[in-house]
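pls read this stuff:
=====
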Amino acid sequence: MSDPTNYRIRRGGYRAEVSSSGAALRVLEHETADGPYPLTESWPANERPPLRSGTVLAPWPNRIRDGHFYFDGIEHQLALTEPERGNAVHGFVWHRDWVLVSHNDFRVEQALDVGLHKGWPYQLRLTVSHEVGDDGLTVTHTATNVGGYHSPFGLGVHPYVRAGDAPLDECTLRLAAGTRLPIDPGRGLPNAYSQPVEDTDFDFTSPRSLRGVELDAPYSALDVDVDGRARHDLRGPDGRGVRLWAGREFGWLQVFTAGAVPELEYPGRGRALALEPMTCPPDAFNLGIDLVVLQPGQTWTGRWGLTALASA
């Protein structure tokens, strides 16, 4: 397998690099008087994204129990891509090389046909554009049903965010989320109904320290501002940091802290935080919760982004 291609974009004080591998966001930095301020975790340019960092997860994010689901009365059996847990995980495109559509100084667009796979007879075409400007990074996704049958669909993204060079244990996190879906830690699948986060260890509606905190939780009931965006903030000890926002199309946010065990440490950083906008929860193809159904010829569009936060 050849090395991935990296596309550089810059504008408005922001610099990003996007990889062809998984259409992953490899670098996002904000220029400051002190030099570049990292807003995401990164990895060597000639390597594939570690821990699915920054990649697109489609045509479903997260996990499908036993790789098995029914849709429109038809039974489907997907390959178990997480065999140790008995799941099909994160779809078909996070590890593939995407095709360049266009690239200029401040925007890059890539595309990919999902293709036909074991247990997946649906034909979808995906695009993703990364664009930087004065307000940071905006990422736009589309999915078009180019086949003859209506198709189930979900999408997520797996960025690891960071507040400059601050260790995660010195940072605080605020999440605009009112509920979380309990999951079985052994399989990463839902094992109860959604529950309010208020007055629990999962409550980050006000900024809280991440020292020693380990999370792998799907959040919902996102608090959307008047512009239709939910906003979540990670700040370092000096008050600076990064904000992840997502449009209404992304009704879920998976929050994951890497580093709980050695094999899940982020290379060169150890503990790291993934804030993952998702359209649906784990096992949505079986639960039917927030599952998108695309009719032939129909296109879905969703947006999210990242911006730097100054000291409060």
Q: What stands out?
A: Residues 284-287 form the longest helix (4 residues). The chain is about 0% helix and 45% strand. Helices lie at 284-287. The first strand starts at residue 6 and ends at 11.
